[in-house]
């Protein structure tokens, strides 16, 4: 059973970026449209670096920084606004 769950999560990770809202719609996981660009990007970077532990780590670990940035812009409530965002820590 454990192997099956890992396999399913791995396969789901291949399709995660374009389908974030399949889970992040407010009923299964937090609604990304209620989060800012900065919040989404910071959380994704923390998952990628292993600083936050959750099944999201499996989806984010292979995303490039550019893909993370694009996802944060696409799904955030403030869209492409990067105001007050300091990426020097990433």
Task: Explain how this protein is built.
There is one protein chain. The protein has one domain. The C terminus is likely disordered. Helix 2 runs antiparallel to helix 4. The chain is globular and about 30 Å long. The protein is built from four helices and no strands. It is mostly helical. It is 47% helix and 0% strand.
Q: What is the strand and helix layout of this fold?
A:
Layout: H1 2-14, H2 37-49, H3 56-60, H4 65-75
Summary keywords:
90 residues; mainly alpha; 4 helices; disordered C terminus
**Low-pLDDT regions:** 6-16, 84-90
Tally of domains: 1
Q: Gyration radius, to the nearest Å?
A: 13 Å
Gross morphology:
globular
Query: Which quaternary structure do these chains form?
Result: single chain
Global mean pLDDT: 75
Head-to-tail CA distance between termini: 36 Å
Task: Give the helix proportion (percent range).
Answer: 40-55%
């Amino acid at each position: 059973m454990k192997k099956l769950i890992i396999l399913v999560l791995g396969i789901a990770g291949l399709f995660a970026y374009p389908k974030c809202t399949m889970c992040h719609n407010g009923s299964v996981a937090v609604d990304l449209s209620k989060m800012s660009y900065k919040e989404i990007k910071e959380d994704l970077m923390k998952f990628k670096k292993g600083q936050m532990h959750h099944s999201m780590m499996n989806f984010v670990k292979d995303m490039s920084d550019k893909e993370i940035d694009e996802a944060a812009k696409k799904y955030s409530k403030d869209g492409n606004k990067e105001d007050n965002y300091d990426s020097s820590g990433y």
